[in-house]
Amino acid sequence: MASATLSTSIPTRGDSFSNLIPNGLLNSKLINFSFLKRLAPRGVAATVRSTWRTAEHGGGLATEEDEEMGRIRRLQNGSDVRGVAIEGEKGRAVDLTAAAVEAIAESFAEWVIEGLETGRRVSVSVGRDPRLSGGALSVAVFAGVSRAGCLVFDMGLATTPACFMSTVLPPFSYDASIMLTASHLPYTRNGMKFFTKRGGLSSPEVEEICDRAAVKYANRVVKVSTLLRTPPSKVDFMAAYSQHLRDIIKQRINHSLHYDTPLKGFQIIVNAGNGSGGFFTWDVLDKLGADTFGSLHLNPDGMFPNHIPNPEDKTAMSLTRAAVLEHGADLGVVFDTDVDRSGVVDHEGNPINGDKLIALMSAIVLREHPSTTIVTDARTSVALTKFITNRGGQHCLYRVGYRNVIDKGIQLDADGIETHLMMETSGHGALKENYFLDDGAYMVVKIIIEMVRMKLEGSDEGIGSLIKDLEDPLESVELRLNVISEPSFAKEKAVEAIETFRNFVQEGKLEGWELDSCGDCWVHEGCLVDLNDHPKPIDAQMYRVKVYDKENGEIGWVHLRQSIHNPNLALNMQSSLPGGCLQITRDFRDKFLVASGCDRFLDVDQVDKFVKTGLAR
Ligand SMILES: O=P(O)(O)OC[C@H]1O[C@H](O)[C@H](O)[C@@H](O)[C@@H]1O
Q1: What sequence ranges are listed for the domain Alpha-D-phosphohexomutase alpha/beta/alpha (predicted)?
Q2: Dist. CA 425 → ligand 1 center (Å)
Q3: How far apart are CA 174 and CA 197, in angstroms?
Q4: pTM for this model (two decimals)
């Protein structure tokens, strides 16, 4: 091993350096030693270095400090922190403890202070969703942030977009914000999202913060503070944020007869799934004159007793659909727990989420900004690309993960390629006009304004009519393949499988499969395969492949990637040929999984089941 690598790298936790380590791992994704040295008290850095040396010599056990540091590092999930916060999951212990949260919050606050280099005390706001663990973990955040020397502002029950908005809306304008949420994950989980005035943090930034927290945590004898240096000040930011949303609706509709109640005469059903989104009903819609009778699950309940708050959830959508039809409402709205995502139901009861929601938002945005570029993740249908380009827009397909999609849009826009909308199929949607922030409430605001505008222009067709010409893909399937490995190696094994897949495709071992360098994106070759003009560290490995057949030409695509949250691979595919997905899956299994030997460390049950029965999951 080259000495240059020796002096700059240390292993990540759990690298017990057995011969289980996948090829090349020892040199990859290792944190920077000089960074660690700056932070780590001598003992810790020395332990880390000596463990690394053990590795260099081919063996040795991870120390207790390594274990502790690894536990904190593994809480990073892309651009968020996520973990189990309360007991209740079979086989999964609590790892998002108050001590871990405190160390991470303190590290974030230090990172903000260093970045701002201001003489005054830095201010940080804190919000949370209704999860049962939220109260206790808030206290841990207050302790960590105040321990770093910041002023803390407690927003209480809040939404993720509101946390960001608290950094830009005067008079609040806090320097940074932390939201405690695990979005649509079960009640046992919780997590953290981080914001500065520049927006949400990227995966490498969160990784840096977790590395810092890991060292801090491992070096602490007493892990949890009992004393708050500065008690938090309570603020009712949600009231100000709601007024901000109301003002936007009033100003943009500019109703000639009733300016302050522009939603008079409209019935809108909100399904908040017992998450944080209830405010949108009583503090935004009701006050603007809408009739919200029939709305569902508005009261916050950290057990989420009705269904998972998630616009991708079938129950959430079908209950909302039923309520819209029962009440003859104009619109149904479904929020996820922390309201950074949403979906809608039109007045005919048609659910609009996934590709359909992207199409709806594209139709609205393209009217305002003809020819704008729209960035989505690369699991969208060929029909969506057609929908966007037929209206004069450009469609850039990029990597899964809302932060990736948003960051790509920001980068394109900065490079002079006008980009107004960035959306993931999961329902994260960000608009340039709204700080490039993924904001489920703001998306609904845009849709409501469009709905009223259409009505005022004399159309009774409703917002569903805007996407009438969007075709559904003939076949669309998602399968998951669990990685069978010790948890600390799961990520690396996933990368190994995905890179092997890429090699197989490139070497022509799967006939008719061709690595898709940029989907149907015209912007730059290679954007999808991470060869950006501004390369960024990769948070999850993924490739999209176009599939051709001799008789029919291009028949579909395959997208293989590491899951962001779990030790598994996600295999998505679409086909325009009946039975195409079955054939694709058969080839994937026989010519890749079995031929490469990856089936030895991947659980191929779902693949086998689909091949046998045609049923996914
Ligand atoms: O990797 P998965 O488990 O499929 O999750 C992927 C999804 O995770 C979260 O929900 C993120 O907010 C999304 O941006 C991402 O697409």
Answers
A1: 75-212, 241-349, 353-453
A2: 10
A3: 8
A4: 0.86
